[in-house]
């Protein structure tokens, strides 16, 4: 039993009278041969590492079988096969997909299944009159074994096909930007399995993920980082590492580092010493100066004072003198390193070539081209000899990589995408690794629109869609707003997708948010909503409902343009929700009812099926009694706060909910932080000054994923349920 997965042990644990050890063992007390012949084929479905998995569960009153598959699409396919094979003579005909555990005796088993397969499970229960019918049970066991065998042998045409590389990378970028940790890690693993990314680029994505989530220790202490920085590294990674040093060790003030002694900081900086032995390829703009300061402190701690002359002029006066005094550096009169190759003649020996390559670390972006040119004319045998030395090989590769013609902005990238022979996978990698730091001047909105109205290659639109998460993140970082007509073009790109994924709905929601921020006409509003309706028509996944609710809340909080169009969009969402109503958990149903009332008015929630009568162990009753407790919600989206307050007060009788929208650190906000039992901080719609006022008084903030009331409610309930999942 030592090699049995923990989730499988949990499934056969509490309340399940079937004993896994008796199925697998031949020792005294094990099940008889007849019982084993029925149970083993199903249990082996969970032990052989293949899908689908179908497992039995029983107590003294019920016989239930649970089926799971590797992804949502395959699970839906499995549902059809089970329906066709089992019929309804022996088992309950209701075999829908459950995304959350049901209440009752199977709760623990279903929770274990969802731990292994978050896409859901199918529940198959013997009819009450068949529970004591041995022949009926044997028929069901045989049928389910046959389902497993036939499903695994189904033709390759109906097997789940390998996902396109660009879509996986796009989903990774979106999940990472949205700080969806589990999804981001899963997509990163999918990229590893896909095999189209080099080891270096996979490592860069992993480091980028840590940086975006401000996991500074994980970033600085990554075990593969020291080898990577032996040569020139991308400026995007340089910025991220220097930001990590600043936040982790140096503080925000330009002289905060002086509060520490050089000896206290030196070990942390020398751990990545090669980073401070090369001149970073950064600009001299005001936004780059903090990165330069962090680099200069590392250089000073490493004792390489000559490199400090490469600092931007804006830092060479008072600040740099203060740094030298703090680090006890003394000028030697030879403080200016050469930024050009050390030799004007071709290197002829391995030693001279090594010295030449080492000097490239102090070269500027303007002079790197001369190094690459020199390498192209050097003796091929000498170059081959150098490449046998790992460090020299790394330096040669980094020179060629950085000196090669590169894409430096969105305009250039869009134009390259339009070329008939464009390598779209390579273009997506450039977007993922480099685009975050492209300058704001690298995108001309009029040029982008002009490209789209020309003969844009049809095959390029899917790549354009895949780049959308990076483009939206770039807009956010640079605080840029597009015209409404440009967002309509982006929505057209999304609408071209024949199969709509949860990522498409999330992107449509992000586009909706940006679209509503700028000036727009009624006609543009109508066109945008009409495009949303086209997209929603093709979204069939239950996972899309949360994003659709967030989208509707954005439209509710926006200025009125055409309520009839908005209400028509809601009716599409409502129709979708009604179609999957039995599969929704209690919170999602509450959110849908609240939205219906907010969109259409009181009584509109009657369009949804009535809630079943509560029993002692029904889902709503599992929520704790919070009577007398106080909840604080901070968000700048007042409509979302109002709706969230209504939902929380409806679900928790006797609770008090306070809402705050202050832009600065007011006494009211500080007192709320001190007094509330729970504090929900909607970071997606907040001011930093407010966060700085709250965090000194509490470290248990609840952070919703989005801006809407649904996100606020889900985050709150998730926090309440955390202790319930802890084994004490």
Description:
Strands 1-2-4-3 form a 4-stranded antiparallel sheet, sandwiched between helices. It is globular, with a radius of gyration of 30 Å. The model is unreliable at 156-160, 338-343, 615-621 and 723-728 (pLDDT under 50). A hairpin with a 4-residue loop joins β1 (53-58) and β2 (63-68). The protein starts with 5 loop residues before the first helix and ends in a 7-residue tail after the last helix. α12 crosses α14 (289-302). By secondary structure, it is mainly alpha-helical.
Write the layout of secondary structure elements.
Elements: H1 6-11, H2 20-24, H3 33-47, E1 53-58, E2 63-68, H4 72-86, E3 97-98, H5 107-116, E4 121-125, H6 134-152, H7 165-177, H8 181-194, H9 199-212, H10 216-220, H11 225-228, H12 235-250, H13 262-270, H14 289-302, H15 318-327, H16 350-359, H17 368-377, H18 380-386, H19 390-403, H20 410-417, H21 424-434, H22 445-453, H23 461-466, H24 468-478, H25 484-495, H26 502-517, H27 522-537, H28 545-557, H29 563-579, H30 586-600, E5 630-634, H31 638-651, E6 656-660, H32 667-675, E7 678-681, H33 688-694, H34 709-721
Parallel strand pairs: 5-6, 5-7
Antiparallel strand pairs: 1-2, 2-4, 3-4
What are the salient characteristics of this protein?
5% strand; globular; 7 strands; 34 helices
Overall pLDDT confidence: 85
Determine the structural class based on helices, strands and strand pairing.
Answer: mainly alpha
Q: Using DSSP, what is the number of strands?
A: 7
* Cα distance spanning the termini: 24 Å
Give a short account of the largest sheet: 4 strands, antiparallel
Show unreliable segments.
Answer: 156-160, 338-343, 615-621, 723-728
Strand order across the largest sheet: 1-2-4-3
Radius of gyration: 30 Å
Q: What is the strand content?
A: under 5%
Which bin fits the share of residues in helices?
40-55%
- Label the overall shape: globular
Q: DSSP helix count?
A: 34
